[in-house]
Amino acid sequence: MKKTMIKLGCVLALLSAVSCEKIGDFNSVNPQEQVTLEDSFVNPILPRGADPWVTQKNGKYYFTYTQGSKLVLYETDRISELALAKSHDAWIPPSGTAYSKNLWAPELHEINGKWYIYFSADNGSNANHRMYVVENSNVNPMEGEWVFKGKVGDSSNQWAIDGSILHHEGEMYMLWSGGNAGAPPQNIYIARMSDPWTIVGEKVSIATPTYPWEKFGNPINEGPQILHNPAGEVVVVYSGSGYWVDNYCLGLLRLANGGDPMNPADWTKKSEPVFSMLAESGAYGPGHNGFFQSPDGSEDWIIYHARSMPNGGDNNGRNARIQAFDWLADGTPNFGVPTKIGQARKRPSGERLREIYKKENWSVLGYSSEELVNTRLADRLIDNDLSSYWITRYSSSPTNYPDHWISIDMQQSLDVDGFVIVQKNGDRKVKTLDIEISTDNQSWVSLGEFELQNIEGRTQYLPLANRTVFRYFKLIPKSGLDNQLQPGLAEAGTFRYKAP
C-alpha cells in the first residue's frame, strides 16, 4: 500500500493525545480473543496474470506478467498479497518498430549488478515474434531508466518466445521456445551467451513435443523455467500443449549430473506431466510458471497461471496462483495437484502476520452524512459485510468533497499498527483518505493522507510508522477515483502485528 504522506511522530507535543511505541514492543494489554489472526490466503492471488514471473531480493518480491503493450513491474514484501502490490510501468516500446506490439512473457533477472527484462514482441504479426531485452543499472528495478539493448537471438533468426536465463558452471545460457514463424511444433532451444544481450554460436534443441499430453491444441513445448534441486542439479520445468486448452500442463527436463547443457543427449524428459488440470480445484490449463522461496527461505513455491473455468472464453482469463512444493528422493520437484480456488491456504513461512481487531462492540460516533433512501448507512462501515456500504448522502441535499467524514469508537484504547480498508464495489471509490486519531474524542491528531487502490473485495492495509495507542479514529475522504462527489466505503478496521 502506498502511503503518500505520513505526519505522525512521537513528539512531546502529541503525548497528551496519543502514545507511540516501537513496533517490536509487544507488551499489549489487549487480550488475544479480541483479534483474528490473518495467517492464510486463497488462490488466485491475482484475478489476472498470464505468464507470471517472480524474482526476489532483499526481502522484496518483484512480479511481472504478460500485458501486451508494455512491461510492468510489481513490488511487494508479501507475495500472498500480490493484488495489493505497488506497480511501475518500467518500459513502453516506441511505436512502429519490430518490437512495438504483443509483448509476451517478460522475465526480470539481475545479472552482474544490473537488472534485465527479457521479453518477446512483434510488429503486430505473430510470425515476427522475436526476443528482446532492456537494461536498468539502478539497484532498485522499480526506479531508474530502462534502456533498450536490442534483439536477443541466434543466427537463424527464427520465431522465438519465452526466453529465460541459466547460469551453470561459470557459463550463461539462454533457453527459449521457438519454431518456424510460430507454426507448430514449438521446441525448446538453448544457446550460450557472451553477455546478457548476446547469443554466441548455434542453438541446440533439447526438447520437442513427443508425448500425447504435449500436443493438445498444437504440439508445443514452451515457457522453460530453470530450477535447481537441493543437490544443485539443473531441472527445467516447461509447459506442454497450447496455452488455450484445458490440458495445458507442466513437463520436466533434467540435465545429467556433470552434463553439458549444449548436449541434447545429456537432457532427459519425464514421460508424464508433473502438474496438470484438476477440475475440482478450478484449475484449467495450469502452466507457464516461475519459482520463488518463502521470506525465511525455508520453503520452495511455484507461481503459475490457470483458468477458473473450462473451455477458455473472453471472460475466463488466466489468473496467477501460488503453492508450496517439496522434493522427491530422486531430486525432482513434487508439485502435487493444483490447490482449490477460494480455499484457505497457509501463507509462505516468514510473512509478517497481522491480527485484525474484532469490531462486534465498536460503534459509529458521528458522520458528515449517510444515504438514507438506499440504506447506505454509516454503521455499515463496521458490520463485517462487504456487500453493504457507508455512502455519503447523494439522493437529496448531497454532501460533497472535501466535507465528508466518519468517526469510530473502538470502545477501548488499542495497540494499533495500521488500518484495514475495503473499497465498495462499483463507483464512488475513495482515492485519498485522511485519518485522525484520539484517546478522548476531544483532541484529534492527524496521521496524514493515505492513498487507496482501485480494487474491489480485497482488504487494503495502511501501516503506521510506529505502533500507536488510541481509542477513536476518524476517516476523512479527500478525493475519489471517479467524478462522483459522494464517496463510499465497504469496511474499515484496525490491526496489530503478531508477536514473533
From TrEMBL:
Residues 1-21 form the signal peptide. Keywords: Glycosidase, Hydrolase, Signal. Gene3D superfamilies: Galactose-binding domain-like, Glycosyl hydrolase domain, family 43. Pfam families: F5_F8_type_C (PF00754), Glyco_hydro_43 (PF04616). Residues 344-494 form the F5/8 type C domain. PROSITE patterns: FA58C_3 (PS50022), PROKAR_LIPOPROTEIN (PS51257). Belongs to the glycosyl hydrolase 43 family. This is Family 43 glycosylhydrolase.
